[in-house]
C-alpha cells in the first residue's frame, strides 16, 4: 500500500485527492499526458486549490513505482468487475472511445 499525505487519502481501498471524490488515477492520467497543474485545477476545480494539485503532483513524482503498481491494481480491479458484471457492447464501446479521446486531447 502506498503512503498518504495531506493531499492524498485512502478510502474504500482506493486513493483520492484528499477531501474530494476525485480519484488519484484521474490526476495521474492528466499529469502524465502533459497537463499542467493549472490546467488540472481548471478542469477539476472541486480539488479545492492549486496548492493541492501541486501537492498531489509532488506525491506522484515522489512515489513513481507505487503509483505504477496502484494503476495496475486499479486496471485489474476494473477487469474483474467487467468480467463479473458485463456491460452491453455499446456501453463498453462508448467508454473505450471516451477513454481513448481523453488520452489524446491537445494540451
Question: What do these coordinates show?
Answer:
There is one protein chain. 61% of the residues lie in helices and 7% in strands. It has 107 residues and is mainly alpha-helical. It has one domain (8-103). It has a two-stranded antiparallel sheet. Helix 1 (24-32) packs across helix 3 and helix 2 packs across helix 3 (50-62). The longest helix is centred in the C-terminal third of the chain and has 21 residues, at 64-84. The termini are far apart. 17% of the residues are buried.
- Order of secondary-structure elements: EEHHHHH
Strand segment tally: 2
- Strand order across the largest sheet: 1-2
Give the uncertain stretches in residue-range form: none
Integer-rounded radius of gyration: 15 Å
Largest sheet: 2 strands, antiparallel
Helix/strand structural class? mainly alpha
Domain count, please report it: 1
Q: Number of DSSP helices?
A: 5
N→C terminal distance: 32 Å
Strand content: 5-15%
Mean pLDDT metric: 89
Helical residue percent? 55-70%
Quick recap:
The chain is mostly helical and 107 residues long.
What labels describe this entry?
two-stranded antiparallel ribbon, mainly alpha, single chain, globular, about 110 residues, about 60% helix
Topology diagram in text:
Blueprint: E1 8-11, E2 14-17, H1 24-32, H2 37-43, H3 50-62, H4 64-84, H5 89-103
Amino acid at each position: 500500500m502506498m503512503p498518504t499525505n495531506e493531499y492524498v487519502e485512502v478510502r474504500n481501498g482506493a486513493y483520492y485527492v484528499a477531501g474530494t471524490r476525485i480519484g488519484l488515477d484521474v490526476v495521474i492520467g492528466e499529469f502524465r499526458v502533459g497537463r499542467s497543474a493549472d490546467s488540472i485545477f481548471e478542469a477539476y476545480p472541486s480539488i479545492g486549490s492549486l496548492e493541492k494539485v501541486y501537492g498531489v503532483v509532488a506525491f506522484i513524482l515522489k512515489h513513481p513505482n507505487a503509483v505504477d503498481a496502484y494503476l495496475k491494481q486499479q486496471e485489474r480491479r476494473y477487469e474483474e468487475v467487467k468480467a463479473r458484471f458485463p456491460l452491453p457492447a455499446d456501453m463498453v464501446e462508448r467508454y473505450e472511445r471516451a477513454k481513448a479521446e481523453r488520452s489524446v486531447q491537445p494540451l
